[in-house]
Amino acid sequence: MPVYHKLGEFPQKRHTIFQNKNGKHYYEQLFGTEGFVGMSSLLYHTHRPTQVKEIIKSYSAVPKIAIEKNIKALLLKGFKVVPVSDYLESRKTLLINNDCAIGLAAPTQSQEGYFYKNADADEMLFIHKGKGVLKTFMGNIRFEYGDYLIIPRGMIYQIHFESSDNRLLFCESYSPYYTPKRYKNSQGQLLEHSPFCERDYKLPTELETHDSKGDFIIKIKKEGMIHEVVYATHPFDVVGWDGYNFPWGFSIHNFEPITGRVHQPPPVHQTFETASFVVCSFCPRLYDYHPLSIPAPYNHSNIDSDEVLYYVDGDFMSRNNIEQGYITLHPKGIPHGPAPGAMERSIGQKETQELAVMIDTFRPLMVTEDAMSIDDGKYYKSWVD
Q1: For residues 194, 196, 198 and 199, what is the CA-based torsion angle, rounded to 10 degrees?
Q2: Which of 6, 179, 210, 371 could disulfide-pair with 242, CB 3.0 to 4.6 Å?
């Protein structure tokens, strides 16, 4: 995260003695990424953050692959993912490669009785339905419909919902999420042409410090396994921290679209980037204003990436018969473009209310059995007249 943030209390000088009013030491932890050269924060714990009492069990969380080398365009009906009470059990991975895992979740209850840590990947959660609070050892973030939540790997968290009707898109990334380089100056500040700015970020607040001992279950995802580990102290025992590595949020509704006289290429919608894929936000906007413009996107070869589109709301003008929660996969190797009739329909239109999230991966995606269970089976033929 390219902004500095801090919560709670910490010493003026790092790596120096820090005690409470009774003379008890606090325990410093460097929470960093990419070794010692990426973003990092310094945390101060009430207890040592290393106290493992027991490892209860370990089990696989690796999804079953249905298609390893895919060439078929797919349409996945996301709202057919069956709601499940438990947050982790509700997460269904649909598309995966060695860089990321994309899926949907429909948890009906808040995460209770355990904490979760993804030691494999940074996580992006997109909130399609529901509202609540993301609770972490670095503070809380309130979320609602349209929010992206970026959770760095190694973050211990719980997610609490206000109701049982929740729908999430998630993307686990094996490299960190950043805002696009072309929007920033050499110091990391977002520039005037950026479609959002630092004021739009949702930063952690409400640092909760629990000075508790007992049996605290943390489910840790590592190398595709879930390990249920019992810690001796409450993981949310941080009294203060500062730095650049922390969870944060951003509302898709605060993305300001970039438009032009003729159709703009997909990178103008880019919101996040990693070393191996980009995330774009398609938001309500005015169409192109050249008198002969064609608002629908032109056909393109898609030779370098697999394109995943998650449809959130509105009428996505380049497709036919799209509903909320649908996912389309356009694999590299086959050109794709507007559905039959979409180009013609778009001519003369002034604006769109579409809302969608796009993930373009630089390497091909494998398709899981969970994905095939909600595939419509015929989308790849939908461009035939």
Answers
A1: 140
A2: 6
Helices (H), the chain: 87-90, 342-346, 369-372
Task: Give the single-character DSSP code of 268.
Answer: G
Number of domains in the chain: 2
CA 249, 253, 259, 264 torsion-angle sign:
positive
The residue count of the chain comes to 385
Q: Where are the beta strands (DSSP E) in 203-275?
A: 213-222, 225-233, 238-243, 248-251, 270-273
Structural domain boundaries enclosing 274: 256-381
| pTM of the complete model | 0.96
3-state secondary structure of 341: coil
Q: How far is CA 285 from CA 249, 295, 327, 349, in A?
A: 22, 11, 21, 11
The answer to whether residues 172 and 237 belong to one domain is: yes
Tell me, what DSSP letter sits at residue 186? Answer: T
pLDDT (tens digit, 9 = 90+) per residue, 369-381? 999 999 999 999 9
Task: Decide: 335 and 301 in contact? Cβ < 8 Å.
Answer: yes
Q: Summarize pLDDT for 43-99 with one digit per residue, the tens.
A: 999 999 999 999 999 999 999 999 999 999 999 999 999 999 999 999 999 999 999
> What is the separation of C-alpha 213 from the centre of its chain, rounded to a whole number of angstroms?
32
- Asked if residue 114 is part of any domain, the answer here is yes
What CATH number is given to the structural domain containing 350?
Answer: 2.60.120.10
Provide the sign of the torsion angle of the four alpha carbons 68, 79, 383, 336, taken in this order: negative
Residue 171 sits in the same domain as residue 312: no
CA–CA gap between residue 380 and residue 75 (Å, rounded): 8
Is the C-alpha dihedral spanning 37, 39, 42, 43 positive or negative? Answer: negative
Under-50 pLDDT residues of the chain: none
Provide the CA 265 distance to its chain's centre, in angstroms: 23
Task: Give residue 301's pLDDT.
Answer: 83
